[in-house]
Amino acid sequence: MKYALGFYPYDAMNYKGGQAYLDRKAAQGWCLRHIYLGSIALLEQAVKPRHFVDLDIRPFLCEEPDQNYLQLCADAGWEHIQTLRGMLLFRTADGADPVPIQSDGRIEWDRYWRKCARKNLFTSLLLLLISTFLVTAVLGLTSGSGWTVTTLAVSNSALLYLLSLTLGLVSILMSFVSVPRYLFRCRRSGQVEMPGRVAWLQDTLFQVYRPLYIFAACVALLEIFGLVGTTAKLEWYGMNGEYTATLDACREYPVVLGTDLGLIPDPTDGRWLEGHRSLLAERLDYRESTGSGEEYHSLTTERYACVNETLARWVFDQRARETRKGAFLWGELDWEPASGLGFEESYTCREGEYLLVRQGCTVALVGCWGVDLTQPEYLSIVHTRLDL
Amino acid sequence: MARKKLETLTEQMYYVLLALSAGPRHGYEIMQVTFQLTGGRVSIGAGTLYALLSRFEEEGYLTLHNVQDRRKYYALTPSGRAVLHEEYRRLRRQVADGAKLLEEEDMA
User: Which of A67, A91, A115 lies at the terminal end of a domain, its last residue?
Assistant: First the structure.
């Protein structure tokens, strides 16, 4: 027995597309055996096979399929293969030629409209409203909380989520364009018509969206537990016995340390360094508190190494916008353009205490309380230490 | 799309009720009887038949008689029999009307 694989992304709304796909396969001598993982069709060689894709009209899909109906179809020569996304998939025995399961186009259309299309339109509308509400709520809750869009660039799970959400949203929006036209066409002819290529694309996007969403969740879990994506994690606080963020350890990374700027280290200093990497960028986040009283300094280095300059420009602009709005540990940063500092793009604020610079594919936000980093001697250190 | 009370029967509807006029039958028997009675001219798909049976049951034209080996047996109700007879008379009138004109035309 020969086998082949196929792609079956069709949803109940486009079940006639699924029928057409199986008809094409049947014409080539392939009969559907089963659909795995929601869309991978396993086909086997057969003699003049025939398929029928019917709507599964149970009120709730968690209920058992109607056994009386399946028995009637079996008596009529249709073997039930499986139930999938609101569809019942049937095939015939080799060479059999039973009457099609739906033999009256008007009854079929009436049933499709009442049991499937209306529900689908309502569900799509509800999904769009819920998505809009969730996105608005998330943006509202996260604005000013320190959470930043640039965080997305250094998290593979966030990128995957973003991609899957985009695919899902595009699929829903496409359905709002294509479905009314399709239903109008069906209504005019009085039967369920063959859906167009847009329906296929929409179903395909939706089929890709779901596994991608699950994959993103798995990657997110791994990232939360630090199993993937974390490139550095060094901590040293005064009260912490685990002194991993020693000066020597931190010096291995391209960040600006207090000692680089001539500040005298003290045993009570606190240091913290964390690194994350995604397919698009690597971010190093370094914080240091050094000295006390008048001599207290708080140091910051955020360094983004991007895969290309376009992304680096976006990170530079985005980080400037975010920190202006207060997405920064020490409050809002009112950046002013600064030229002549030796970087391709640069901003400065708080009398030179903070610098936001871009050089090639690298973006860095550097800051130190009480130190004017725009002074030539410090600029040279920033250049060297950040590997710009 | 609001559901209308049945006024006239489609050909497939007529044959479903006709197949049940001789006594209770299950779905596949109805399909077979229709096929044999019409010499294969009218064939009813399982899905179409199931939809029609559900609709007739809702309208009170037939009733579930019993279930045996996952097969539902249906029987005509007096109301269903009346609808069948009314349809039969309507079809006869149509044939008679046609005969008046068309047979004369054929003879000419």
Answer: A91
A217 is in which domain, residue-wise? 105-224
Q: Are residues A220 and A252 in the same domain?
A: no
Q: What is the DSSP string of A227-281?
A: SSSEEEEEEE-TT-S---S-HHHHHTSS---TGGGTPPP-TT-EEEEEEEE-SSE
Model confidence at B107: pLDDT above 80: no
What residues of chain A lie within 8 A of the CB of B44, using their CB?
99, 103-104
Q: What is the spatial distance between Cα A239 and Cα A336, in angstroms, rounded to a whole number?
A: 38
Do residues A77 and A150 both lie within one domain? Answer: no
Q: Are residues A355 and A241 in the same domain?
A: yes
Residue with more model confidence, B1 or A217 = A217
- Give chain B's domains with CATH numbers: 11-107 (1.10.10.10)
Regarding an ipTM greater than 0.90, the answer is: no
Is the alpha carbon torsion for A196, A202, A205, A207 positive or negative? negative
- Asked whether residue A117 falls in the same domain as residue A204, the answer is yes
Report which of A268, A276, A256 is spatially closest to residue A368, judged by C-alpha positions. A256
Measured between alpha carbons, how far is A323 from A349 in angstroms, rounded to an integer?
A: 11
**Residue A69 sits at the chain B interface (C-beta within 8 Å):** yes
Question: A127 is written with which tokens?
Answer: 């999904």
A/B interface, count of CB pairs below 8 Å: 65
Total domains in chain A come to 3
The alpha helices in A45-90, defined as continuous H runs, are 67-75
Q: Are A16 and A193 in contact (CB under 8 A)?
A: yes
Q: Which residues of A fall within a CB distance of 8 Å from B31?
A: 75-76, 99
| One domain for residues A118 and A168 | yes
Residue A10: the pLDDT is 92
Q: Pseudo-torsion of CA A21, A23, A27, A30, nearest 10°?
A: 70
pTM: 0.71
CA-to-CA dists, residue A271 to A138, A229, A242, A268, B20, angstroms? 31, 21, 12, 10, 87
A271 plus A191 within the same structural domain = no
Contact across the interface for B46 and A101, Cβ inside 8 Å:
yes
Shared-domain flag, residues A201 and A255: no
